[in-house]
Amino acid sequence: MYHYTDGGLKNIWLINGYEEIDTPYGKAVSIEDIDGLHRVIGRWLVDLPKPLTGAEFRFIRHELDLSQKRLADMMGKTELTIGRWERALDRPVDPAADRLIRLIYTACTFYADGKPIRELIDRLAELDQVERAECRLEERQGKWRVKDPVLAA
User: Pairing relation of β-strands 132-140 and 12-14?
Assistant: First the structure.
């Protein structure tokens, strides 16, 4: 498995869908459909029944293509506040901000797939069930999917 840390997350492992290649500068990794991989990671994070850490929050913000300033304006916070949350890589972000970024991400991605927003609202009410999570992803027939989520209470 390949430990995928390029998105700033420490808990993502790729089972397949990547190729190690030799370059003049050493080993490199080529990943199939990086955009699809990031969508699956984003959806996994939104569905995760635990508070988002600063690193996870930052990953989702990047997937939404929002600057810290733009997100701060949407949330009624300062850019400094968003930056402070994101730098606290392993600590949970503000609970209201956590729920809001999940809703924004869901509205931007799940709606396009016909997934009802009500499912997310119900999941948000059940946060704090998991303390730690790790995700193993695999690529099959050109599509990424969660293969093996590991949740620990």
Answer: parallel
Q: Residues near 20 by Cβ (< 8 Å), separated by ≥ 6?
A: 2, 27, 28, 29
Write out residues in the chain with pLDDT < 70, as ranges.
110-129, 151-153
Tokens representing 77 are 């916070």
* Phi/psi at 103 (5° precision): -65, -45
Helices (H) and strands (E) in the chain, counts: 6, 7
> What range defines the domain where residue 145 resides?
2-152
Q: What's the number of domains the chain is made of?
A: 1
Measuring CA to CA, which residue among 107, 128, 22 is closest to residue 60?
Answer: 107
Q: What's the confidence (pLDDT) of residue 119?
A: 67
